[in-house]
Amino acid sequence: MFATYVHQLDPIIVQFTQGIALRWYGMAYLAAFLFGYLLLKRLAERKLWVLPPEKTADFIAACALFGVFLGGRLGYILFYQIPREGWGSIAADPLLVFRVWEGGMASHGGILGVAIFTFFYAKKHKVSWTGVGDGLSVVAPIGLFCGRLANFINGELYGRVANSVAWAVKFPGAFMDSKAPESGRLDAALTAALDVDPEFGKVVGQIASDPRIVDKNMAYYHALLDANCHSDAVTDAIAPFIESRHPSQLYEALSEGALLFAILWLVRVKFPKAPNGLLTGLFFGLYATFRIFAEQFREPDAAWVIEGVLTQGQFLSLFMYLFSAAFLIYAFRKRRETV
């Protein structure tokens, strides 16, 4: 067996001020939009997309804002945040909806947001909605790939316990997860970290003496995560208190991202006269399949729909099969009409 890796990647690239930082999460989205733009422009230049090359940049910018960010964030709030913490969490902190840099984007919400955006965009510009969607469906997996890599760097959306898997990862982020075995081990990990890192001890002392900090445990938790990113001694000290887990973010990056992109790009290039709607239908169907499979290895981040059988992510993915069927039926009907 390989030595299990303890996740200690810092989600922050550069810290400018206490509240302003350049994060890998934001860079992942920037990379996704950049590659999406370049690939869509390439398709447009080869007459494999319904929009001309000069409209690609404006389309990507509007799609990112109104489809991905708005849809993804609202999807996370509605599908995960509220079911887990109730409406009170939003009422107590309404600005939570806008703090996307802290994480919390739902891929299902983003996909739905993009579908709605492209509908109105196509109607306004008098082009085929399914044609617009086909081009976007080809490059969308690149965004999913970058997003899952960002999830891994952030140490969030980790997998289920997998002590016998050679490539398992220990995620300190599980310390505050009430569903995870580590949720009761935070105190032991804090004690172990204090014994090996005097600087961490100073931070803990400041938290303990600061009357403005109401939730001390949460503050200790964030301080421990920060110390873990910057101190190998802390990482080694807390490792025994963390369960090994599947790196499910990487499973999803490879399946929903890289593999799905390869399949759709191949279909687009090899069958340039494929009817509009075919690629969109394939995207919905294959994404749902890969997501349902990957959820078997992922720690559920919301209440089970059917305990031990169906997760929230799998449940939402089932509806995507309906969209897939609708687009594929439309595509094959169009195909018949042109034959």
Q: What's the short version?
A:
With 339 residues, the protein is mainly alpha-helical.
What does this structure look like?
With 339 residues, the chain is mainly alpha-helical. The chain folds into 2 domains: 5-162 and 246-338, no CATH class; 172-241, no CATH class. It is 63% helix and 4% strand. The chain is built from 12 helices and 5 strands. The protein has helices at 24-45, 56-85, 88-92, 107-125, 129-154, 186-196, 198-209, 216-230, 232-238, 248-270, 278-294, 312-338, and strands at 5-6, 12-15, 21-23, 169-170, 244-245. The strands form 2 sheets. It has a 3-stranded mixed β-sheet with strand order 1-4-5, with no helix packed on it. A two-stranded antiparallel sheet has the order 2-3. A hairpin with a 5-residue loop joins strand 2 and strand 3. Helix 1 (24-45) packs antiparallel against helix 5, helix 5 (129-154) packs parallel to helix 11 and helix 8 crosses helix 9. It is elongated and about 70 Å long. The termini are far apart. The model has no long low-confidence stretch (mean pLDDT 89).
Task: Describe the structure using short key phrases.
12 helices; 63% helix; single chain; 339 residues; three-stranded mixed β-sheet; elongated; mainly alpha; 5 strands; two-stranded antiparallel ribbon
